[in-house]
Amino acid sequence: MSISLENLNAEEKLLVQLCRMHFTEVQEEEIKLLTGLVKDWERFLKLANEHGVIALTAYNLIRCKTQDAGRKTQDDVTAYEVKEIPERVMKVLENGLMQSVMRNAWLAERWREVNNILNESGIKHILLKGMALEHTIYESGGLRQMNDNDILLKREDCLKAWHLLRGNGFTIEPVKSPLHSKILTDIGKHLPTLYKDGYALEIHHRLTSAAGKGKESNTDYFTDAEPITVGNMQALVLSRKNQIIHLLSHLETHMQEGSCQLRLYTDIALLDESVLPVFPSHFLMKPHQVMSMKQRKEVYRKTLNSLDRRFRLRFIIGDTFPSIEWMKKRHSCNTIKAFLFYPRRIGKLWWMI
Q1: Could you give the percent of the chain with pLDDT greater than 90?
Q2: Runs of H (alpha helix) within the chain
Q3: By three-state DSSP, how is residue 173 classified?
Q4: 203: buried, middle or exposed (CB in 10 Å: 19+, 13-18, 0-12)?
Q5: CA–CA separation, 282 vs 38, rounded Å?
Q6: Cα–Cα distances in Å, from 137 out to 132, 151, 223?
Q7: pLDDT tens digits, one per residue of 35-53
Q8: Per-residue model confidence as pLDDT tens digits over 247-297
Q9: Which of 108, 154, 234, 266 sits between 20 and 30 A of 316, alpha carbons compared?
Q10: Helix, strand, or coil here: 172?
């Protein structure tokens, strides 16, 4: 992986080295050596959890210990034996792995309902990110941690599918503004998230947020999509080339927003390590950082530039003066208090100017 190991402590080095699916003998030896150098296992657990790779690191540590035990005899020299990891730490790791396995199985079962509803209406979709990666490069082992499902639809099918799912019990958070309701397939990369019984689904209408791509066609993505199996269900995923383009764009967006996890880097590295940019070292110790004013402006500028010029004024007005329902949700308050927050929105208009 494109991460410099210089100036890293043992906990950080071990975490980076465990973010892979297959190991050479040299890499196995490095992991065994590093486990003997780790001094703060609690910090290792914290980093693995914050970077979204606790399931993968647990699986690989268990595998290394098992392989090492299988090679030993009573007469073996144990210089390369994996150091005994504290029992509580191993329990946390194993629990994290089991939770990820169960979570992914649950998400696959919830996606089955979505798949059936869309198929019955003749609407094709492509699995993105977590679900697509879990059942390809992560070998369906529950190792790719995820919280929701993301799917890509042809632009002309997005709203139809979105309303169809809402008619089947899915709900949404309040749309920011009625002005935005008319341009949902022009804002960002996906429609407002759909929810049902703790399950979340995002319907994407494009893969990147590049300026001028508001009307991009998704037809080509479906033309060279690749079939996979999720349990006993058939599904489509992006071609490797398009998947890399999507994941690199996704990574760039997260970095601009002050978030960069090893999970996202591992996704790309497992597909093609040669295209992976160098991991920003300041994200290793703290993957989720507070956005600076400069970052916030850049993110807003990127969103605005991705819109067709005809819709930019509508977007700005709707963003500056959102609906009262959105304000109540945003500030967790009643109607009267929500109105009191509107003067602050005028301040945001000045900030945008």
Answers
A1: 63
A2: 10-18, 25-35, 41-50, 54-71, 87-120, 129-134, 155-166, 178-181, 219-223, 240-256, 262-272, 282-285, 293-305, 312-320, 324-331, 335-340, 342-352
A3: coil
A4: buried
A5: 20
A6: 9, 18, 21
A7: 989 999 999 999 999 999 9
A8: 999 998 888 888 999 999 999 999 998 998 888 888 888 999 888 888 888
A9: 154
A10: strand
Phi/psi of residue 151, each to 5°?
Answer: -130, 150
DSSP letter at 276?
A: P
How crowded is the C-beta side of 261, counted as CA atoms within 13 Å? 18
Could you give the CA distance from residue 233 to residue 251 in angstroms, rounded to a whole number? 29
Tokens of 132: 């697509």
Structure tokens at 91: 């329990």
Long-range contacts of 91-98, Cβ-Cβ distance < 8 Å, separation of 24 or more: 92/45, 93/45, 93/48, 93/54, 93/57, 93/58, 93/61, 93/62, 94/58, 94/62, 96/48, 96/49, 96/54, 96/55, 96/58, 97/54, 97/55, 97/58, 97/59, 97/62, 97/142, 97/143
DSSP secondary structure of 217-275: --HHHHHT-EEEEETTEEEEE--HHHHHHHHHHHHHHHHHTTB--HHHHHHHHHHHGGG
Residue that is written with structure tokens 């994200």 in the block: 283
Q: How many CB atoms lie within 10 A of CB 251?
A: 20
Polymer length in residues for the chain: 353
Reading the block at residue 257, the tokens are 């927003």
Average confidence (pLDDT) over 225-245:
94
The residues, ordered by sequence, that sit 6+ positions from 173 with a Cβ below 8 Å of its Cβ are 192, 193, 195, 329
What's 125-154 look like in SS3?
CEEEHHHHHHCCCCCCCCCCCCCCEEEECC
97 close to 55: Cβ distance less than 8 angstroms: yes
Task: Answer for the pair 26, 17: CB distance below 8 angstroms, yes or no.
Answer: no
Measured CA to CA in angstroms, residue 107 lies from 131, 135, 329 at distances of 8, 12, 26
**Distance, CA of 151 to CA of 167 (rounded, Å):** 18
